[in-house]
Amino acid sequence: MDKFMQSAIEEAKKGFEEGGIPIGSVLVRNEEIIGRGHNRRVQKNDPLAHAEIDCIRNAGRIGRYDDTILYSTLMPCYLCAGAAVQFGIKKVIVGESENFEGASDFMREHGISVIDLDLEECKEMMQRFILENPEIWNEDIGE
Fold first, then answer.
1. Active-site pick, 11, 31, 32, 52
2. Mean pLDDT across the chain, nearest whole number?
3. Looking at residue 79, what is its pLDDT?
4. 1 has pLDDT over 80
5. Can 18 be counted among the known catalytic residues?
6. Longest dimension (CA), the chain
7. DSSP string, the chain
């Protein structure tokens, strides 16, 4: 498995261990992780603390983002896809989109290359969480 996706999965597991939603993300530049994060909506009582936002925030002000790759265990929602578009991230690699279709078309329409690895580990992690925590999941996706 891709070492960067493995790092995103590790972030997702951290979020779950903290009592949150198991979604993780890393931002990569020149084959090096420059930011990492996980969904912290529950932990921080913050509706905007999605994994990709947490990751980009933790990368800090890096100037340009067009040479970065954003990894996420789950297809980004419109909020996170909007951040990728806003900052000019050109490539997003996701673990899965079966549990949540997300905003892949939106990102592609804005010139982002989106690669879905369709990983069983990511699918199973989200399926289990959704079954055990439907109210938290529905809140996360705005339903």
1. 52
2. 96
3. 96
4. no
5. no
6. 40
7. --HHHHHHHHHHHHHHHTTS---EEEEEETTEEEEEEE--HHHHT-TT--HHHHHHHHH---S--TTEEEEESS---HHHHHHHHHHT--EEEES--SS--TTHHHHHHTT-EEEE---HHHHHHHHHHHHH-HHHHHHHTT-
